[in-house]
């Protein structure tokens, strides 16, 4: 994993963790449901952003090279598998 991808992913994960901690506190304090849902959506959005950062880094670092070699089919299948899992 490229260092810039790693740092960006960690930054976004820490942000998601902060949002999640806030959701937990809101539930413990029995806050308004809509406020909790909005915070939960922020967590989910932050995690999707992490996925995008990691996927882009993977495509740039690994898949681009594999497309020119014998691992082309394997690389394509890995990406297809990830997208299938994401849609469940």
TrEMBL record:
RNA-binding found in the keyword field: no
Gene3D superfamilies referenced in this protein's UniProt entry, alphabetically: Metal-sensitive repressor, helix protomer
GO terms assigned for molecular function: DNA binding; metal ion binding
GO cellular component: cytoplasm
GO biological process: negative regulation of DNA-templated transcription
InterPro entries per UniProt: Metal_Tscrpt_repr (IPR003735), Metal_Tscrpt_repr_sf (IPR038390)
Keyword Transmembrane: no
Pfam families membership: Trns_repr_metal
Assembly notes: Homodimer.
The protein, known as: Copper-sensing transcriptional repressor CsoR
Provenance organism: Candidatus Curtissbacteria bacterium RIFCSPLOWO2_01_FULL_37_9
